[in-house]
Structures are given as C-alpha cells and as structure tokens.
Amino acid sequence: MRRIDPNGVLAGKVALVTGGSRGIGEAIALRYAMAGAKVAISARTQEEGTHQFPGSLDSITSRIQAAGGQALGVKSDLSLPEERVRLIHTVENELGPVDILCNNAAVTFFIPIEKFPEARLRLMFEVQVHAPLHLSQLVIPGMKARGGGWIVNLSSHAAIHPKLGAGLPGSVVYGMCKAALERFSTGLASELHPDKIAVNAMSPGLVATPGAVHHKLVNDANREMATPVEHVAEACLRLSCNTPSMISGRVTYAADIMKECSLTAAELSD
Questions:
Q1: Which of 152, 204, 228, 235 is the most buried (most CB within 10 A)?
Q2: How many angstroms separate the first and last alpha carbons of the chain?
Q3: Are strands 149-154 and 100-103 parallel, antiparallel or unpaired?
Q4: pTM of the predicted model, to two decimals?
Q5: Could you say which of 174, 211, 212, 233 is catalytic?
Q6: Which three-class secondary structure string do you get for the chain?
Q7: Catalytic: 32?
Q8: 173 closest CA partner among 110, 216, 88
Q9: 40-69 pLDDT, tens per residue?
C-alpha cells in the first residue's frame, strides 16, 4: 500500500473497522491508515489460508505497519455480545478510545424465506443489526466525553422495497437487516446530533468483492457497472472526517458522496 501520511485528516484518531480482513472492509482500513489513523480491524480470519477467500487480519495489519502506520487486528465473532465487549476493550487498551466506528461486518445467506433456517436468521440479525447497535453503545460514551465522533454503517441497495417480481432471489432477510440498519442510523444520528457525533448509512453499490463474486452478485453482465472499491473507501473516509453537523443522518451511496464532495479516490496500492 502507499505510505502513511502522519499529518493526514485522521491523524491522532483511532478507527475501528469490522469485517476488515478483505474486500470493502480491507479497503476502508487501508484508506483510514493512509489518512493517519491508528486502525483496529476485527474479523474471524486471523491467518491466510484458513478461509476460502484470500485476506486475513495478519496480512492487512502487516501491510499497514510496513507502510509506517499503526494497526491492530482483533479476531472476533461479532455474533456474540461478549466478543463485542472484548473487542472494544482490546482496542481501547491497545490504541485508545474509538473516534471512528465503521460497521462493515456481515454474514449473509441467500435462501428463499420458506426454507430459511431460524439459526441463520438469528445469526444475520446478530451480526448485521445487533452488533452495530451494541458496538455503538460501547463507544458512544467515549465519543461524548471527547466532544464528538463518527459512526458509518455499511448498508445495501437491498434495503429498498423491491418491485413485485424483481429483487435478488433469497434476499428477504438480507433486505430486512439492511433496512433495520438504515433506520437505526438515521435515528441514532438524530439522537446524537447535539453531541457532535455523526452517524451515516452508506451503500457501496455493486462491488466485486470475493463474497459478491461467490454469490454471483457480480457477473459478466454487470461487471462493468461495478463500483471500484477505492471509491467506497474514499467516500467512507469523507464521512469519517467531516464536521458532524455537515453530513449526518444520511442514507446514501458511495457514488453520491464522491460526486457531492468532488472526491478523487486515492490508490490503495503502489
């Protein structure tokens, strides 16, 4: 990756990115680090070769450290409340209080609703809804004490009500989770506005991550329309360093933030 700017817009800040071992979370973690943040990354994959897709906590933190940044990888199962508490305590003890929380982690199953197992439904809601809420509860007191902070929740176009006969097959529960996350984001933004804590929900758009390719969400028919992951990372950075009163309570897209703020995406690798 490119070198760290120690005087970047996030200098002195501590950022936590969940689901940061690959894909969108990896790109966001790298961009935060390039902007000078001390970055904590959580995921379930500690080492390369232990997951069907490439990417791990060890590889991402090593890249950041080799570029001159400070990074911490914390293996966590965010479906478990006690793991979420341990994650925040570990980050605070190692790097300091969390200034930026990016809730990116997701566990997704695309199964028709009449066949959807209850255990998988509960798992999706734990990781995609309960975890962002709980992690926010854990970091908000510290943000208030320091006079502000930023929470970015990664959503999806699936949150929008589909037209009859349209929509991604088997995506009912996924859409429910993302719709709940968006309503949580706008409600929390309103509640925390007096405390100068910005909360936004941002949909990446179609991104060719390993998971998206695996689920055939990205294919030859739509590959050219995919959003570069660098654009998602740049837009997420913008939502994590603005004056909270300027951009908060949004349900938006990476492409819209790029256009609105006239951003140019930074390269994440040399």
A1: 235
A2: 6
A3: parallel
A4: 0.92
A5: 174
A6: CCCCCCCCCCCCCEEEEECCCCHHHHHHHHHHHHCCCEEEEEECCCCCCCCCCCCCHHHHHHHHHHCCCCEEEEECCCCCHHHHHHHHHHHHHHCCCCCEEEECCCCCCCCCHHHCCHHHHHHHHHHHHHHHHHHHHHHHHHHHHHCCEEEEEECCHHHCCCCCCCCCCCCHHHHHHHHHHHHHHHHHHHHHHHHCEEEEEEECCCCCCHHHHHCCCCCCCCHHHCCCHHHHHHHHHHCCCCCCCCCCCCEEEHHHHHHHCCCCCCCCCC
A7: no
A8: 110
A9: 999 988 876 566 676 799 999 999 999 999
Residue 51 to residues 79, 229, 243, Cα–Cα distance (Å): 18, 21, 38
Structural domains in the chain, CATH included, are 14-260 (3.40.50.720)
